[in-house]
Amino acid sequence: MRLARRLAGPVPGWTATADVVVVGSGIAGLTAALRLRTRVPRVLLVTKGALASGSTVWAQGGIAAALAPTDSPAAHRDDTIAAGGGLCDPDAVDVLVTEGPARVRELAGLGAAFDTGPDGGLALTREGGHGADRIAHAGGDATGAEISRALVAQLEAVRADPGIEVIEHALVLDLLTAAPDADGRPGPVCGVTLHVIGEGSRDGEGAALGRAVVLATGGIGQVYPSSTNPASATGDGLAAALRAGAAVADVEFVQFHPTVLWLGAGVKGQLALVSEAVRGEGAWLVDTDGVRFMPAEHPLAELAPRDVVAHAIVRRMASTGSDHVFLDARHLGAAFLAERFPTIAQRLAAEGIDLGNDLVPVAPAQHYHSGGVLTDVYGRSGVEGLWAVGEAACTGVHGANRLASNSLLEGLVFAHRAADDVVARVAAGDLPQLEPVERGGPAALVAAAARPRLQRLAQRGPGVIRSEAGLAAAADALASVPTRAHLDPGTVASPQTAEWETTNLHQVASVLTAAARARTESRGGHFREDFPEPDDGAWRVRLVASLDPDGGLVLDRVPLSAQSSGNPAARQAPVPPATLTTS
């Protein structure tokens, strides 16, 4: 398998310069930009939509942290590692759980209005995999929207500051890199190319040069035909980082949310999830015969880790010949549900479903990606000048399966750390502004018309339940997709947003399929029906993907202990002789 190292597109028509370019405006991107704003001379924040778009605003359940007197970071650590299926980086988890409470309190200090109890303290609830009430929430089930509101308000208050520029409605196409090294690999990252979709402060294609780039571009949800992710989640950051020489890891671990509103087989796009917090308050899962099935599947029943619940639902659907199950919250009372989950109740009501009185049809759909650009505990990638935070990064915190509500916390904690690290590197003079050079090899462009086919291939190959036959068929089909549509006069395609996004989806799907095919075991968000058990002897390692100088995809098994190292070479070094080169 070979992947292009750049997207096809016009020569940039304008150039902007900043000390740091932050890409993305979810909790991670906004936190990084606000932290950097007064500490480096100039920050440029680029976001694909409006500032308040992205995945954070859709997060319902809450943000996890050991905030209760009866809770502890150690207990949060144990729950995180248990959910991670043996692949969490313990050092990264320690950072998350020990620094998390302070970061959440700081967020409240910035104006995020979390729900409180009768005593005025934070109202904390519990979700699947947690052994304590440690989920802080806002507006009942609108936590992400409230966090986004508070951070956007902070940024809007300083938008006129000459030390920060915001470009909205801009798709980052590629990371700019300096002169290659002796082996032909791309040099340090020194900026981005971007296309302003039409409502930003600059027009058309441009280049933003920077001493450092912080990627906070979110997930890969639109690789699949159905996802809870917004339409903007097309894996842009992961694909761009891979093309620029960065390693990506854990890409095979895709979390499928167990309880996404099922509205029929033909419904596509962003789907509404019914938060795990509903099960946290006591809702049950029943099959289409009315049988509650989770107590027989796991000691935590409906509060088992999400992968356990999703797989159990898929198996139950198969055994009953149905394409959904039901969530039953009726016994919790209509008044309580309306107060605790107003957003969910309103969304269901729009579909004619009464949360307090009706069974809610649900089925698993893609929700979160545990993999991403491989980083250490400071957000540094293996490429000089490039940091990654939030869902776009693989810090090792989630391992094979994210613990509920750890995602917002990860974005908050590691964006804070990455910003501090960038500031220190800039102050030390370690990040000079370098001149970009064009990466060699052919450029890629996949026709937008191919997107539905790519999504079906992802669903049938690296979907909820995987097999060698399905993955092999998906890999062959993905390899046959024309990737130079801009040079084919018979193909209706040109360099524009839909084609660039589809090209990113194709590259992400290709790497995802290769990694899922290579990992011949089941663990966390990766389930192989032909290898249904975990294999600690061979696979308690991180699977790391990168491109060789010719664009060939290389998969390496890397020891978990290498990730927290500050040495980028150690983080990307394979364990001889376990290198797996795809063909």
Walk me through what this model shows.
The protein is an alpha/beta fold and 583 residues long. It has 15 helices and 22 strands. The strands form 5 sheets. Strands 1, 2, 6, 7, 8, 9 and 18 form a 7-stranded mixed sheet that branches. The chain has a 6-stranded mixed sheet with strand order 19-17-11-20-21-22, with helices on one face. A 4-stranded antiparallel sheet has the order 12-16-15-14, with helices on one face. Strand 20 and strand 21 form a beta hairpin. Helix 11 runs antiparallel to helix 12. The longest helix is centred in the last third of the chain and has 22 residues. The radius of gyration is 22 Å and the shape is globular.
Strand content: 15-25%
- What is the C-alpha radius of gyration, as a whole number of Å? 22 Å
- Poorly predicted runs: 565-583
User: What is the name of the CATH superfamily of the largest domain?
Assistant: FAD/NAD(P)-binding domain
State the CATH class of the largest domain.
Alpha Beta
Which fold name is given in CATH as the topology of the largest domain?
A: FAD/NAD(P)-binding domain
Helical run tally: 15
**Mean pLDDT score:** 91
Secondary structure: helix percent: 25-40%
Topology:
Layout: E1 15-23, H1 27-36, E2 43-46, E3 63-64, H2 73-83, H3 90-109, E4 124-125, E5 135-136, H4 143-156, E6 164-167, E7 170-177, E8 189-196, E9 204-215, E10 226-227, H5 236-243, E11 248-249, E12 254-261, E13 269-270, H6 276-280, E14 284-286, H7 306-320, E15 325-328, H8 334-340, H9 342-350, E16 360-369, E17 372-374, E18 386-388, E19 393-394, H10 406-427, H11 451-460, H12 468-479, H13 497-518, H14 536-539, E20 542-547, E21 553-558, H15 568-572, E22 580-581
Parallel strand pairs: 1-2, 1-9, 2-6, 9-18, 10-13, 17-19
Antiparallel strand pairs: 3-5, 4-5, 7-8, 8-9, 11-17, 11-20, 12-16, 14-15, 15-16, 20-21, 21-22
